[in-house]
Amino acid sequence: MARTASNMIELGTPAPDFNLVDVITNNRYSLKDVRGNKGTLIMFISNHCPFVKHINEEIVRLAGDYRVLGFGFAAIMSNDVENYPADHPDNMNEVARRHQYSFPYLFDESQEVARAYKAACTPDFYLFDNELKLIYRGQLDDSRPGNGIPVNGRHLRDAMDAILSNKKVSENQKPSIGCSIKWKYRPES
Question: In the structure, how many helices (H) and strands (E) does the chain have?
Fold first, then answer.
């Protein structure tokens, strides 16, 4: 299993907008549509990645626990589906239904949204405050497939709890580790 770390972009970076199709409902969603009044979590995930499979249940719990507290959620899949057919939108829909995703699962076919966010891996997490400024990026928690550490979402939960308590989110943040985004081949122009 190759391991790719997330890009730790600068805190305070504004959230890039998007307009993508949700594979569950076939509706289009923008950043404004998924925005929460306390904060917004954008997750880059995929179907085939063992790191995402390892945390799927926790991201569903996280969304269930924090949506009612004013957070918005969206998951985005940006992989090249021609070379990675397990990530095709039909399979995205099946995964979302099986895990009962309560958030939009958006298909970034052009990969422009992943590039705008500087996403590098799946899973990759970006938490924005109520002004859509980046306040947390990196890992869900310290658990990885096979390391024996329980999945609990602790790092991301701590950041969201800090927002709810009007406290500063710790800037001591660890990059996420996962499968690389599967980029389409783009010859240099």
Answer: 5, 10
Range of the structural domain that residue 140 is part of: 3-180
Using only the alpha carbons of the chain, give its radius of gyration.
15
> Quick check: helix, strand or coil at residue 173?
coil
Residue 189 lies in a domain: no
Q: Is residue 186 part of a domain?
A: no
Strand order in the sheet with 71-77: 28-30, 19-22, 105-107, 71-77, 39-44, 124-129, 134-138
Q: What is the pLDDT of residues 27-70, one digit of tens each?
A: 999 999 999 999 999 999 999 999 999 999 999 999 999 999 99
pLDDT value of position 185: 72
- 26: region left, alpha or beta (phi > 0 left; psi from -120 to 50 alpha): left
CATH number where 128 lies? 3.40.30.10
Q: Where are the alpha helices (DSSP H) in 74-125?
A: 89-99, 112-117
69 lies in some domain: yes
Can you tell me the distance from the alpha carbon of 43 to that of 126, in angstroms, rounded to the nearest whole number? 6
In a domain, 188, yes or no: no
pLDDT, averaged across the chain = 95
Burial environment of residue 27 by CB neighbours within 10 A (0 to 12, 13 to 18, 19 or more): exposed
How many structural domains comprise the chain?
Answer: 1
